Amino acid sequence: MKEKLEKISLRAYTMLAILVLLWLFFHWQTEGIFLTPRNLSNLMLQTSVTGILAVGMLMVIAAGQIDLSVGSVLGLAGGLAAIALTHWEFGVIGSIVLTLMICMLIGALHGFLTAYFSIPAFIVTLGGLLAWRGAIKGLSQGETIPVSDPTFKAIGQANLPENIGWIIAIIAIAILVFINFQRAATSRTVLKILLLSSLVVIFTFVMNLANGIPIPVLLFLTASLFGLFITDMTVFGRYLYAIGGNREAARLSGINTKLNIVIVYIILGALTGLAAIIFTARQASASPDAGVLKELEAIAACVIGGASLVGGRGTVLGACLGALIMATLDNGMSLLNIRDYVQELIKGTILVLAVGIDMAGRKES
Amino acid sequence: MLLEMRSITKEFPSVKALDKVSFNLSQGECHALVGENGAGKSTLMKILSGVYPFGSYDGEILIDGKLKKFFNVRDAEDSGIAIIFQELSLVKGLSVAENIFLGRIPSNFGIVRYSDLRRKASALLQELHLDLDPEMIVRDLSIGKQQIIEIAKALSKNARILVLDEPTSALTESEVESLFEVIRKLKSRGVGLIYISHKLEEVFLISDRITVLRDGETVATKSSKDFTKEEVIACMVGRRIETVFPEVQRKLKEEVLRVESFTVYDYYNKKVVDSVSFSVRKGEVLGIAGLVGAGRSELLMGIFGAWQGRTEGNVFLEGGKIQIKSPIDAIKAGIGFVTEDRKRYGLIIEKTIQENMTLASLKNFSRNLLIDKLKEFSTVSDLMKLLRIKAQLPSVKVSTLSGGNQQKVVLGKWLLTKPKVLFLDEPTRGIDVAAKQEFYLRINELAEQGLAIVLVSSELPEILGLSDRILVMHEGKAMAEFTRKDATPEKIMIAATGYERKT
Q1: Contacting residues of A for B360, CB less than 8 Å apart
Q2: pLDDT digit string (tens) for B80-122?
Q3: Do residues A263 and A355 both lie within one domain?
Q4: Closest-CA residue in chain A for B362?
């Protein structure tokens, strides 16, 4: 039993170790460019959009579902935000609210079709992948829509001033302490708090050495905390894993499996909307091709992070680490001027390899 | 002698499934194998068909007087042995001919020779006097026809020994008749048949000899003519050493649950439970006995709102009529359900004891949708001690527990919903004797505390030892009801095998 417990954390530590090794490797290969504050800030920025999608995707995967449409929904949502802002003059807040609402409605539709009509999630969202891409192409008439509103662009491009960064870091540490003392306070929890707090401090320090914490990164971290909170502390989160682990047992235990599936798709919808807003703001424009293949990146991040597509397994932390590993590969290989097609070959191989090693390890236990 | 199995002994880690069982079969004979659930029939057939390979059992198998060693299913097939299981193994989307010759479809360089296939299939079907188009898709045929196709498939592989495991359980009467027609034809061709069935009437109709197994031993082998139904039942039940059941004097109080003419329909709109009524009182254990397929689980699933199909009937809880549309309603009303097959219906096997135990009552462990993990932890810890679950912490994964402990986790899950009525469906299946004994103590304690319990079990001693009253079901119908005093294994078996109640 103890071995089993250790095995779980072993997987998390292995991933961290792989990440650190990758960082050191790229640092060495790029002759000291990779581990500079500027590049690390850039790396976090690159992680944020995929990371936010991965947090939502993880919850969907935990419930034994899948969503192939997030890339297209991201494109549609980005386009809507841009049009609402520039053509319909909804204002920044109005556009954001509209975008999030529509994304949640799309999520609800996907969830409803799969839960209540028993259409496999794969098919529903494959349909979504095609249809929503079509919708944005029609809406934008194939043109890229530029965004000039400085407030909106700030969501994707601005950084937090140094002192505000520190204030947020202090709040984060306070929350950490508060959450952990809700449970039994052992020497292990104290150690955990110290470790996590020092991570927060180091992170804030490094980001401040660059330009301060980028807003997208702050939003990504908030989304992952939200995901952690949902999966680890709420009744709903517990139900997600139960549904993914054994849907029949969950149903017989009096869980409304269908309703919970609809809700998890709505949450993924909201997070996709958030990712779309950041993406559009960062590009300062909405292209009809925005978000192509993003769904696969999000799924890959979850899977690299230890989630099982059968459902019932996987953590938000793992998914975030998975997203960070993917972004590290992107960033590092680009710095090394490795050509696009080679990058894709390597990323594909690593995805299959990671799951292969994980499966081999699981068989032994 | 076509087949001889000599003093077959098979032991599993915790139990001796077969003890020096002998069985033989002549050419053109239909030899019935009967016995209660768990008597060892399927273990014997698994040895015959190579599922349990040579070396994993003691004893010898001879075919035509020659010693045979089957190391896998293929070896047994090559010696002409074929088993038709209850669950048919046809590919529903393929044609009759394709199914019969699956794996041996005539072809040139991978291209199917359809004319050959059709001709061979037609010839085979004609031999069995079956009026079937070999190009029909199997899905469109009735279960009875599908079964006969399965037999045709076995014959096409030159099967000489054919085992039929509960072949008529899903058939209508006319389909049974045409199956018997095929069996007679096979007998005249010299095929030996082993016929396994719970339905004694059919057994007497079709078989030449009958062998009764009980607790892994051969009790009797006689010609069907020299046997009576009463004798067969007496052999099946026998006098056994009773497991020690704690003698309890239960105080029965007011009625908690009453079910009136409850009917459950399956996917094909066939009645799997037919107008069953019963009631349970506070502190009472109602046993529901019956053979596999009697509709007992379906009855409980139906009442609990978990049956995915049509149900009819009235349910009253504490005198008031209630509508149960889903397990959510049932739990709210105060019904708990320890389902059969804990891995399939009861547990989230990858999760911890704590997460499994609170799953059905999580709302009681939460404030504003946040889980109060401290409260959850301490409640689960206490319950683990109370139920004597052998694990160090609530955070242990249930997959690492023994069967008996897993079952206690499921029981704990339902106790946390604070039920008034608890359904137990085969609660001690697959757990060892000591764990069973302990489980019985827990059930008695719960009844003493005033819980109303409905116990479905295929183990007669369990039903007899625990129940205050016993309802016996056969093919979806309630056949008889006995009080603890009146019930005997013979009476229950007579009702369970479908003989009308003697008044």
Answers
A1: 253-254
A2: 999 888 777 888 889 999 999 888 888 888 888 888 899 989 9
A3: yes
A4: A235
Answer yes or no: do A139 and A177 share one domain: no
- Does any CB of chain B come closer than 8 Å to the CB of residue A182? yes
Q: Answer yes or no: do A164 and A226 share one domain.
A: no
Q: Is A11 among the domain residues?
A: no
Distance from CA of B407 to the nearest CA of A (A): 14
Residue of A nearest to B401 (CA): A1
CA distance A229 to chain B (A): 9
Q: List B32's β-bridge partners, or say none.
A: B195, B210
- Within a domain: A9: no
Query: Which residues from A are below 8 Å from B417, CB to CB?
Result: 254
Residues A61, A39, single domain; the answer is yes
pLDDT digits (tens, 9 = 90+) for B162-188: 999 888 877 777 788 888 988 998 899
ipTM given for this complex = 0.83
Distances (CA, A) of A132 to A65, A292, B68: 19, 11, 65
Percent of chain A scoring above 70 in pLDDT: 94
Interface contact A4, partner B, CB < 8 A: yes
Does A192 lie in the same domain as A117? no
pTM: 0.80
Q: Which residue of B has its CA nearest to A314?
A: B350
Same domain, A252 and A147: yes
Residues on chain B touching A234 (C-beta within 8 angstroms): 366, 369-371
| Chain B residues in contact with chain A using a Cβ-Cβ cutoff of 8 Å | 304, 306, 326-328, 330-332, 337, 339, 344-351, 355, 359-360, 362-363, 366, 369-371, 373-374, 377, 391-392, 395-397, 400, 413, 417
Q: Do B351 and A242 touch (CB under 8 A)?
A: yes
All structural domains of chain B? 3-80+160-237 (3.40.50.300), 90-157 (no CATH), 252-334+420-503 (3.40.50.300), 351-418 (no CATH)
Determine, for residues A252 and B363 on separate chains, whether the beta-carbon distance falls below 8 Å.
Answer: no
pLDDT for residue B503: 38
Instruction: Specify whether A220 is located in the same domain as A205.
Output: no
How many other CB atoms are there within 10 angstroms of residue A164's CB atom? 13
Domain assignment present for residue A105? The answer is yes
Cβ distance of A241 and B362 shorter than 8 Å: no
- Give the pLDDT confidence of A166-179 residue by residue, as tens digits: 999 999 888 888 87
- Could you say which of B331, B344, B392 has the minimum Cβ distance to residue A1? B392
Beta bridge partners of B425: B456
| Number of domain units in chain A | 2
Domain of A295, in residue numbers? 33-153+214-364
A17 domain-assigned: no
Among A170, A192, A212, give the residue marking a domain's end. Answer: A212
CA distance B354 to B352: 5
Residue A274 sits in a domain whose CATH number is 1.10.3470
Instruction: Say whether both A82 and A119 belong to one domain.
Output: yes
* Chain length of chain A: 365
Residue A93 carries which side chain, given as an amino acid letter? I
Whether A254 sits inside 8 A of B391 (CB atoms) is no
